[in-house]
Amino acid sequence: MHFGFSYIGLIFLLMLFIPNFFWTKNKPKDYDEYAKCENKVLLILERIGEVAVSCLILIFSDFNPQGLSIWLLWLFASFGCMILYELYWIRYFRSEKTMKDFYSSYLGIPVAGATLPVLSVLFIAVYGKNPFLFAAGIILGIGHIGIHLMHKKEITSREKR
């Protein structure tokens, strides 16, 4: 592992944060009502993971391409997930912006808005051979995907009423 700026990490974070910035102006109907009920442990894990991933992905130059190798497949997989993540957001922004739209699957990937960026982090961690980013991705995944799955479950139970 080598300390240094990762422009790949910066591109990743831009792909992550730009749609989330627009989301703040386009939250699903009733989102705040669901957010009040979030599991505090999952929320803490999500926040720790967000901060750790955001820092770690920028400070290791190992995430920048280092020439041709079979390891590049992990980087391509990571960016493939982020492209799907962008497409998920396009679909959401074109929708009615309901909770069901926000927590929907995309191309068979459950709670795609949470799952795709976490998978991307894990793939880029493997590419950079960085166990710290991988661990941060696991922590993020437990919190972020866990919260999304809880919201999806609550949406489903409310629909049955």
Describe the structure.
With 161 residues, the chain is mainly α. It has one domain (7-160). Helix content is 71%, strand content 0%. It has 7 helices and no strands. It has helices spanning 7-23, 31-35, 40-59, 72-94, 99-102, 112-127, 131-160. Helix 3 (40-59) runs antiparallel to helix 7 (131-160). The longest helix has 30 residues, at 131-160.
List the keywords.
161 residues, mainly alpha
Topology, element by element:
Layout: H1 7-23, H2 31-35, H3 40-59, H4 72-94, H5 99-102, H6 112-127, H7 131-160
Helix pairs in contact: 1-3, 1-4, 3-7, 4-6, 6-7
Keywords: Membrane, Transmembrane, Transmembrane helix
Transmembrane segments: 6-23, 44-63, 69-90, 102-126, 132-151
Biggest sheet overview: none
Q: Can you tell me the residue ranges where pLDDT is under 50 for at least 5 consecutive residues?
A: none
What would you report as the Rg, rounded to the nearest angstrom? 16 Å
Mean pLDDT over the full residue set: 94
What structural class do the secondary elements suggest?
mainly alpha
Residues in helix, %: over 70%
Total DSSP helices: 7
Please tally the β strands and state the result: 0
Query: What is the H/E string?
Result: HHHHHHH
Q: Supply the number of structural domains.
A: 1
Transmembrane segments: 6-23, 44-63, 69-90, 102-126, 132-151
Keywords: Membrane, Transmembrane, Transmembrane helix
